[in-house]
Write a structure and sequence with these properties.
Pfam families: Ank_2. There is one protein chain. By secondary structure, the chain is mostly helical. It has one domain: Serine Threonine Protein Phosphatase 5, Tetratricopeptide repeat (Alpha Horseshoe). The chain contains ten helices and no strands. α7 packs antiparallel against α8. The chain is globular, with a radius of gyration of 16 Å. The two termini are 30 Å apart.
Length: 150
């Protein structure tokens, strides 16, 4: 699922992710590890390849201390969240601010991901550095609050 709307740049997307391209993908532009670039672009197959090629990508940290699971939860990438959990990503991992994937999914209102993370044992009462739980960061989003309370 491509996040961009409208005409696409003249870019041929290969059917099979090119590992050479993947290896250099985020490096030149913004120094993000390739797995974070792939998650940001919603490239499920590429994320899967990067995890197969380098299992350590599973809990890799970016400069903000985010893990791929946190990034996927933030971006609303349900299939990637599912994939990361299947390969054993740390559901309790926190970023530098103490937020978990569930905090980010709650703040963004991604109900399907909140449900998945809760079902898989994400800590519902864990507080971040500001003392906020996933329920608190949901703010006024009543659907999210109701789901977390269930």
């Amino acid at each position: 699922h491509n996040r961009h709307v409208g005409p696409q740049p003249d870019q041929q997307q290969p059917d099979v992710p090119d590992r050479e391209v993947a290896a250099t993908m985020g490096k030149k532009k913004d120094n993000r590890p390739p797995i974070f670039v792939a998650i940001d672009k919603g490239q499920d197959e590429l994320v899967e390849e990067l995890l197969k090629d380098e299992p350590g990508n599973r809990d890799l940290r970016n400069t903000d201390g985010w893990t791929p699971l946190i990034a996927a939860a933030y971006c609303g990438e349900h299939d990637i969240v599912e994939l990361l959990l299947r390969v054993g990503a740390d559901i309790k991992a926190t970023c530098r601010d103490g937020d978990t994937a569930l905090h980010y999914a709650s703040a963004q209102g991604h109900l399907d991901i909140i449900e998945l993370l809760a079902k898989k044992g994400a800590p519902l009462e864990l507080k971040d550095k500001d003392g906020e739980t996933p329920y608190n960061v949901a703010g006024k989003n009543l659907k999210v609050r109701k789901l977390i309370q269930e």
